Amino acid sequence: MSVGGEQQSQATSGSGAQAPWHALVLTLYPGMFPGPLGAGIVGRAVQDGAFALDTIDIRDFASDKHRTVDDLPFGGGPGLVMKPDVVDAALAVAIARAPEGAIAICLSPSGQPFDQSLAREFAAAPGIVLLCGRFEGIDARVIEARALREISIGDFVLSGGEPAAMCVIDACVRLLPGVLGAAESLGEESFEDGLLEYPHYTRPAIWQDRAVPAVLTSGNHANIRAWRREQALRLTAERRPDLWAKHPARTQH
Ligand code: 9WO
Questions:
Q1: Is 188 exposed, middle or buried (0-12, 13-18, 19+ CB in 10 A)?
Q2: Whole-number mean pLDDT of the chain?
Q3: What is the mean predicted confidence (pLDDT) over 219-231?
């Protein structure tokens, strides 16, 4: 058997808009999707057809009767490495199926740190192809040959790239036009201005002897805006010196 992903891949997409933003995930565990992406705002976006979520099972591109996708590492050492021929055959189909201009990504702790500006870049593209590794990793030659963007969601090791792919997709989808309603819309949100979020409060005004900050119940909206800005600046300076160093407000505080 040779290349065959077409029939086995699953699509989860709505029926509304034409050529919606497309996320195409290459994985050995297509059953993990949509998973958490089926809930809440992102789940609604799939149902509404604001974006298309598609998986390709990498194992469908194995060429032997045992459907082998991994092999021993050259140079020795523990574990197994995903075979370049199998991964490349899956990528060929993925790139052909994804919209022209889609960005091809590999999830790896060695990648470029994912942040809100990368989410904006990916959301502005016609779509993304996400390669999720398993075992000890993927043969480096296929990543180089396909010029994949290596992306990290943080300095920790997962058992596979899939949870990281879900994070990237979630961050991009909520930036697509029409996905967030007015009530949830961006603007004051964390990272849209390079700052951490100010703290939030709701009723009751006193809970377990703790009162809400008085300014929030004052009705003075200029003071409330100023207080929230101060809190965002203070939290960012205290907790995230890396973000604070890049922020234009740093010199005034
Ligand atoms: C694992 C690894 C460990 C140390 C330094 C570099 C590394 N690369 C990989 C790797 O690509 N691993 C593959 C995907 C196979 C094993 C599970 N994988 C994975 C991806 N673990 N953790 C991630 C990941 C992805 C994005 N952001 C953080 C972690």
A1: middle
A2: 92
A3: 98
